[in-house]
Design a protein that fits this description.
There is one protein chain. Helices cover about 75% and strands about 0% of the residues. The protein has 6 helices and no strands. The chain has helices at about 5-25, 30-55, 65-80, 100-120, 125-155, 160-165. The protein starts with a helix and ends with a helix.
């Protein structure tokens, strides 16, 4: 349908955007547990980028049918629609509470999981599928971490955290 290279390019983009989001979020004065979690998640996103870079460097496993590949590219564009996985609309300067940060991260992680589950059905290499499944598990764990943190620390503002540090 669509090429492994195209899938990998999207995976690389998604994971780099996630890493950037978490590293940018670290610039705000969150609690030590939240900062540690953001750092850990950024590092996991780097490992995910490495996976897609390695997959992309494998010898091309293309169908050889240009019409089929073109149809696959169109299908990929249609399935993704206008989704850019960029998080550009997530203005971190406006995120002032743990709840807002968690909500934004959860939405991004869930979108990522949906994309990976969709592309998984097009992969045939057993090792690649297993590695992608592992990444999907980690992304699901990211969602769970944010959901648990949000429940425990819901709505703590940066301003209040700064006052508590004094």
């Amino acid at each position: 349908m669509f090429t492994l290279s195209e899938i990998c390019d999207l995976g690389i983009q998604i994971e780099r955007n996630g890493e950037k989001f978490y590293r940018d979020a670290l610039k705000q004065p969150w609690s030590k547990p939240m900062a540690s979690m953001l750092h850990m998640l950024a590092e996991e996103e780097v490992r995910h980028v490495d996976f897609f870079v390695k997959e992309k460097s494998k010898p091309a496993r293309q169908s050889g049918d240009p019409e089929l590949e073109a149809m696959g590219r169109e299908m990929l564009k249609e399935v993704l629609g206008s989704q850019s996985f960029s998080l550009k609309e997530a203005d971190l300067s406006k995120i002032k509470t743990i709840e807002q940060l968690c909500r934004t991260a959860i939405e991004f992680e869930k979108d990522t999981i949906l994309f990976y589950e969709m592309i998984r059905s097009f992969l045939t290499d057993k090792d690649t599928v297993e590695q992608l499944d592992s990444i999907i598990e980690e992304e699901n764990r990211h969602v769970k971490l944010f959901e648990e943190y949000q429940c425990g620390e819901e709505g703590i503002s940066i301003k209040r955290m700064n006052q508590e540090k004094r």
